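Lab meeting notes turned into a lecture example. A postdoc, R.K., suggested we walk through two folding results consecutively so the class can see how the record format repeats. The first protein's sequence and structure tokens come next.
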Amino acid sequence: MITRRGWLWTGLAASSRLLAPKALAQDKPATGANDPELAARQAKLNAALAADPVLRAIVQELSRARTLRTMGESIYYADVALDDADSFTVSAMLGALFEPNRAKLRPMRVQVRVGTPQMDNSNSIFTDYYSGTRYDDSSLPLDNDPIALRTQIWLALDRMYKTAAEAIGRKQAALRGVTVAEPLNDFWPAPTRLLFEEPRRIKVDDDAWSNRVKALSAIFLKYPGITSSSVDFETSQGNTYLVNTESTVVRVNDRIAYVRVRGSQQCPDGMAVYDGACVTALDPGRMPAEPELRATVEEVAKNLSTIAAAPVGESYTGPVLFSGQAAAQVFAEVFSYQLCPQRRPVTEPGRSYPMAATELESRLGSRVLPEWMDMVDDATLQEYKKRPMVGHYATDLEGVAPEPVTVVEKGVLKTLLTTRTPIRGLTKTNGHARLPGGFGAKTARTSNLFVKASKSESESALKARLLEMVKTQGKPYGMLVKKMDFPSAGSADELRRTIMRASRSGAGGRPVSSPVMVYKVFPDGREELLRGMRFRSLGTRAFRDIVAAGSEEYQFDWLENGAPMALMGAGNFVVGASVVAPPVLFEELELEPNTDDLPKPPIVPPPPLTTN
């Protein structure tokens, strides 16, 4: 018997009827065995299983998983997710090409839950702990031998079942020693889905992209002061599978391509400055033409040369205007994290886990923006004003269809972005499980985030208001930010130093990236570029005091990888994200200079760069 939260298969043969009509209804009540829509969906599923050995192997092994009871616990939920991908990567530095790499990958993610949705093995510090010998090969074979495929899937399910059975015992023991103030369930229900996309690969010319990346990297040869630089191109194309024991079967195309540019330069006083850019597309065939890519690389190189010659700023408190790209970047950085709460795991009595709560999870119903601003996250949009939205997706990592979510309405926080892990104050998932997470949960992230202002004015009017506020407050100048270091183009060491500096300064909260292009704006309108500045205590509370917003809209696309400041190159799982936002003027923000000890620049100048 197949039920909404029951088992997907009681047995399997390639030619048998694998799913009952109820399981195929996808949130519609069954209308009888003769329903033509259900019959068509059944036929589509049968055809996919007959033609796709990977999908067939997943279905077979999930069906067998129901027999796992050797450790006294039965499985109430399990899923197998798989990325069947082909990737091509090529990098270059100063006109010299590194060896291109083309690879075929099949990483697999398996989840097993024992117990009940009210209390299972997840959301605990013990969730991922297993005392036995681990079999850590979580990839499927690249050929389609059915025995090899099924063996790997079975071993993964077996290992995760044993892990789950141990974890729930430890979790139950820990809970007996604590009093839970407000108990929450461990797993929210979700609608059943059957979603198939026909596999489609876009042809990528490896040689053409290798030559293009080589030529783009050679642009930095014209800027001998830049100490390090690189240009990378990467594309990944394939199918993403998700099959679970609630009758959800998903196979969708998953493609992404990007050109990433990074550079750094040491200033005369020893300070290192960074800049970078990333051009992203969900379709490799829709990457910008080479002239646009060259302009992107030229901009990064020119920025570095200009910044290195700029003076170091001093501590500042006063009005700040975020213009152009920086406006979308600051919303992207702050809200892509703060709108996505994470569940604190169960720990042993007297033992805490260092997980800071997000700023917004306790502020539902409170004002977080001016009353004339709204914020909507909509993953269903593929284009906006004829420009592709890289945050679009058809299904999240839990097989849930994303919903357009109005997170802020007239300045008031209405809801948050959720996965199937219950969060206090909310009632269901809205399909935003976008990154793998810890403790048996997925991590929510924004998709296409739109910031709307019902009251707006031109950017020139905003700058005039900035200067008016400078005069009113008796400041010698105001601050204008045109670009942020988000995603951060620095190194992992630089990221660690940034976090340490923020903790030493007593700013509290989550540090944000530094402004790359930040200017003093004097009362006569003159602008002076600064370097070495960072924000102090820039969080969501500052956004309540936005004074004005511009009438223009700026779209910013980036790759979200879950790392602080979305550090370029960090993480092994990335998703596209977009923000559309207007310029915004803050009445008062704090900036401070970098006060770290700086390394002395080299005494001997570097040898001249040549192309020979």
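The second example is placed directly after the first for contrast:
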Amino acid sequence: MNVITKTVSLPDGRTISIETGKVAKQCDGSCMLRMGNTVLLATVCAAKDAVPGTDFMPLQVDYREQYSAAGRFPGGFTKREGKPGDNEILTSRLVDRVLRPLFPSNYHAEVFVNIILFSADGVDQPDALAGFAASTALACSDIPFECPISEVRVARIGGEYVINPTFQQMAEADMDIMVGASAENIMMVEGEMKEVSEQDMIGALKAAMAAIKPMCELQAELSRELGKDTKREYCHEVNDDDLRKQMADELYQKAYDVTKQALDKHAREEAFDKILADFKEAYAAAHADLGEDEMEEKQAMMDRYYHDVMRDAMRRCILDEGIRLDGRKCDEIRPIWCEVGPLPMPHGSSIFTRGETQSLTTCTLGTKLDEKLVDDVLDKSYMRFLLHYNFPPFCTGEAKAQRGVGRREIGHGHLAWRALKGQIPEDFPYTVRLVSQILESNGSSSMATVCAGTLALMDAGVPMKKPVSGIAMGLIKNPGEDKYAVLSDILGDEDHLGDMDFKTTGTKDGLTATQMDIKCDGLSFDILEKALMQAKAGREYILGKLTETIAEPRAELKPQVPRIVQIEIPKEFIGAVIGPGGKIIQQMQEETGTTIAIDETDGVGKVQISGPGKDSIDAALAKIRAIVAIPEVGEVYDGTVRSIMPYGCFVEILPGKDGLLHISEIDWKRLETVEEAGIKEGDKIKVKLMEIDPKTGKYKLSHRVLIPKPEGYVERPTRRERGERRPRPERKSRGDHRQDGAFRDEEREPRDFNDSLDKMGY
């Protein structure tokens, strides 16, 4: 084995080691990455040839976490890992978005990158290491790839930027950004913030670049040592340079003219398609001697070359004349209209439309029982704010079936979730779910989801700290030119044909989330700052449109929303409220028609009661408060007789709290039996708490003090007041038995309250 190990240091002195040549040697490239006790394996395999007809980069990145990495069993019946969870899909997307642009544009062989988490101690976050591992596996192979990259997480803690912080450190961070970059250029940014400024974010990107550069240099050095710096030869495209030039000469001006007409999306597509269709028809007529297979090959080339013609025409029109596809200026936002409450029954709803992009979003408020259980390898928790994003084919006019949720939908929904989650108060008792249905799409539907989500939350009466808006930015910059254009509120075609897709969300006071994909080299921080500041102006404009529609959250919840009350109880009473096997809490829910949930947080019990109305919640509150109440001497209680004894009865004054009502304390007259007073088990009786025994904590009750004393009544003195003890007959020895075998013992009827307590151990 030719095992090579290399190490790189982070700014705080922690190290990451890379090892190759020991495991997974049949792959094109593999490496084992280790940081502390966190270990990942990354492998890459590529097909030798492209599938005929493929004209894109068929890259598949899969990040998976083994439960054994953290010493855990998977949940479910099968007890094995299944389809990837949202966390794994999101990490896969982070890696994919950095790697994909760095494969040659004419390389179309299938490439599979697999990253597996084999060990995790819960200290270091493995998702920040996945990009480094994947790029190193590519560096260890001969698969064509432009340059090494790496990814790091940047958090700001106490005003300082920390690279790849631990899970524990993240609790104190006000910024969480993942940055993917080569040694020279930023490729991808995604993260969330607590209303930070644009300058703070640029500072985080600079800190990330400083940490990433030595990681990329390590990979280049490793590739040279393995002899993999010379990549394999391939031929996945057949080209005709004469045809390419002919199309550029004949079609460029036509495409440029369509670009300047400012047509709507479908009209523009039809106009562009007609240009290509007319050229294909003319070319076929002029080359009738070509066979069917040759003509199909030429037409496939025409599709590729025409894409380049449209791209050049659009870019030059923007750079030279400042005219965009729909006729807007570079910093102009498309027309916006909003509506809240379009649907009668959802707890909150809204429609947000910006140009040809539209989201209908609903908000549902639920109880604690509606929280989502997150059961990832390194995260087992509950989520009380959910956001789901759906992108059906009809929103772009496509005639095809809608299948399950794809990676794109999970990624876009996660970005909108990060944008909004920090603005929901922590003490808001409801579980909140937003569902964004994209009804039209031409431009950023994830940013439309953020805006529609804000409106739906406010329509539902969720007391948001501040409303949030979002915008997608673009960039046009040709290599070697100083001229560039930053575009606000980009169209779908401007995203596809441009050099940057840059989304930012925020309140009036700062950024809350961002996502950036950069496709050009040499993006300076000056250009990035201009894009950020132009995005800020656009966000503020859109925010104004939102607040014109609804200025603040509704003061009242809608009638169909379940009401919730939340109280705190001492930790030691949690068991009493739940009862053995949940008996008490289930009985309370059945009797009151409410739903009751209890959690222990920060040393106290947090009880959430939800019900259809105030009366049912008040009834449940009364029962819970009775359980946690502490009986006080002198208080009068409506008690329930639980059991009857010869010397009195036991009365439940509060749930789970019984006291003795002695026979002498039932009435002012002398009673021989409890039944003589007409008392039966289950009867209600008013009693006063007279005393709590300081040693045993037992309760002594009285009923007679609550009824009028008869005239001329004379209190019979107790034995202690008489100061003498009645002589007791001598006991027989243990050997002295009755004829029936029972021990002889003198039985004595209790004569007063204290004698009874003595006998019972009170």
